[in-house]
Amino acid sequence: MSGQKTVTPDAEGLVASINAVKTRGLPPVHLWNPPFCGDLDMRIARDGTWFYQGTPIGRPGLVKLFSSILKREEGKYFLVTPVEKVGITVDDAPFVAVDFEPEGEGVAQTLTFTTHVGDVAAAGAEHPIRVERDPETGEPSPYILIRADLEALIDRKSFYRLVDLCVHEGDWFGVWSGGQFFGVIPSAELP
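Predicted structure:
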């Protein structure tokens, strides 16, 4: 017997652990490597809704708190504290970019996105935009990297606004931000 206490993961325990190490800004989850404690019945839907045991989490502050300890390793998502790490399910991307503000024009343009949990990221080299297209329907799914391998799905209204800012650059139709060009669709494939 190792003397180590067996932990059964639950949301209340995570909240207590988070509150014990509360800091300004985001917690340093990249520095935490606690033992894996199992999977938690928590899921983030494609629309950004968080569920615990099949029920939507209705408190925005709690969702924001959980999102602050989210980490991705080898394609899997975890909530981590200094003492425990639990697996959760993410249907698509863990965040949804619900708005953006453009500043400047052309190559000097910067697009600053805001997520449904209040994260802010200016698209550029550190926060690239990418667009995946469904191979059957061609429907685009646009994303922006928010932090440490965690992306936000850009919501439909924001994507339409983004497309309005797109220009042709070489063989691509795309958008400039932070000195980087992000291709949305090959120009030849536009109707």
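Summary: The first helix runs from residue 11 to 20.
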